[in-house]
Amino acid sequence: MRSPTDPPSSEKARKPERPPTREDRLKAALKANMARRKAQAKARNAEDGTGEIEGD
What we know:
The protein is an all-alpha fold. The chain has helices at about 10-15, 20-50.
């Protein structure tokens, strides 16, 4: 049985955090940018009403 002062088992198994590398920062920035663009495209399609391309 655990004591109330013991950290949860998920925190024990966690590795100590290392500072993010340049690649990690770029990956996070790209993911945020793609999510923002996807939300903008979704909002644009919702404004159009149909959500389809008006070429045909």
